[in-house]
Backbone:
């Protein structure tokens, strides 16, 4: 059998990875990317396979295999980036003996699941994927799907049900985004496992049970999640350049931030919420947060509503979370709780997470980023191009005089330190 751009031979592989000739499985031996899509046929006897189809899942399939077959379905990929998509919408399409995917060469081999309208759970444990939940026939935990050479696992939302993607071992790039409507895929990362997000994500929830999740992207992303839970001695969320918007309470999120900030004020904690940028340069970068029910949040134009909390990696000293440090941040800090001893949030001006606003926080503002015109690196694509043509906002002497605390006022404050 010959496909466009390559040769497909018929090979199967047993659970130990040994291969032998067989008649109904595919090993791609060409060097081009190959995309295979499988879906249970309406006859409930076969699964349909589309290979490199522009309209996978529609029309006549490329081939079929028997659901009752006692040898696994094997897709051995090429030297390029291959993908295997498993559509669960009409039931479990795996044969009784299971399925094996080997991405072979390439650095971006993708295994992708399309959920059913019921609650589907994908469990990824290194070399084995399994499925539980879902409608009758959608469980293949007793016939695991073997994976090799897989870098990306997709289980995007929008198909209905309360879906879950559990990463219990290994390191994978995860895409569990629900593009529109209510997010319905919750992601859990167990101890020893690591998930990387490279695109915007809207998740039903994110649970880091000792595992690490990182946002890695050259441009700013937004990780939007239902409840965020971080536990264990190594549960950590590394936001990189990304904003986090979550429904977890502000006090919970503040606790996660303090865990990572540590008494060294350097974001080096093994647990909690941090950013690799701030870890690498804690003098220049920090993380701030704001709650949507804080009256200051709408005043500052922050993209959250009551019931949400924003966490934003930014420049140290950026009290109002606009990603630059100037007199507006000084004004923010003196807006109400300065030297009162009152319990304070980040946008109240508690920039060093000690719970109150005092001169130590003023020192953070003037620690290096003040009025440099600098902005937090890697704005989103639109903002980056705008930033390239818009001159940094320069404070005039007139505005500085207008906003500046009087010398007497500052001296009075100094006495209260
Ligand atoms: Ca600012
Ligand atoms: Ca403080």
Residues:
């Amino acid at each position: 059998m010959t496909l466009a751009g390559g040769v497909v031979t018929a090979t199967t592989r047993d659970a130990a990875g040994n291969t032998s000739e067989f008649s109904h499985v595919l090993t791609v031996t060409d060097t081009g990317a190959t995309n295979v899509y499988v879906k249970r046929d309406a006859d409930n006897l076969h699964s349909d396979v589309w290979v490199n189809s522009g309209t996978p899942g529609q029309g006549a399939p490329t081939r079929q295999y028997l659901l009752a077959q006692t040898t696994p379905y094997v897709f051995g990929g090429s030297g390029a980036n291959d993908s295997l998509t498993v559509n669960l919408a009409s039931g479990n399409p795996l044969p009784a003996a299971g399925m094996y995917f080997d991405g072979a060469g390439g650095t971006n081999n993708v295994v992708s699941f399309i959920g059913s309208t019921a609650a589907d759970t994908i469990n990824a444990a290194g070399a084995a994927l399994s499925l539980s939940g879902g409608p009758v026939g959608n469980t293949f935990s007793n016939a695991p799907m073997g994976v090799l050479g897989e870098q990306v696992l997709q289980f995007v939302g929008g198909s209905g049900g309360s879906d879950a993607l559990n990463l219990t071992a290994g390191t994978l790039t995860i895409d569990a985004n629900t593009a529109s409507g209510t997010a319905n895929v919750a992601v859990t990362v167990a101890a020893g496992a690591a998930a990387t997000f490279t695109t915007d994500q809207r998740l039903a929830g994110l649970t880091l049970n000792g595992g690490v999740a990182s946002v890695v992207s050259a441009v700013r992303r937004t990780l939007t999640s239902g409840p965020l839970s971080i536990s264990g001695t190594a549960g950590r969320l590394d936001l990189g350049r990304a904003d986090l918007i979550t429904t977890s309470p502000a006090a919970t999120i503040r606790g996660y931030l303090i865990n990572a900030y540590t008494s060294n004020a350097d974001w080096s904690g093994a647990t909690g919420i941090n950013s690799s940028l701030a870890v690498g340069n804690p003098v220049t970068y920090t993380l701030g947060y704001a709650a949507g029910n804080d009256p200051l949040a709408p005043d500052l134009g922050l993209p959250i509503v009551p019931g949400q909390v924003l966490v934003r990696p930014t420049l140290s000293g950026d009290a109002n979370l606009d990603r630059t440090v100037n007199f507006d941040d000084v004004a923010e800090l003196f807006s109400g709780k300065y030297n009162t001893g009152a319990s304070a949030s980040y946008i109240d001006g508690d920039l060093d997470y000690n719970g109150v606003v005092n001169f130590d926080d003023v020192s953070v503002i003037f620690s290096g980023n003040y009025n440099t015109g600098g902005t937090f690196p890697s704005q989103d694509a639109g903002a980056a191009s705008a930033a390239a043509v818009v001159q940094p906002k320069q404070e005039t002497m007139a505005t500085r005089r207008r906003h500046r605390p009087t010398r007497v006022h500052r001296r009075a404050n100094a006495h209260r330190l």
Q: What stands out?
A: The longest helix spans residues 250-261.
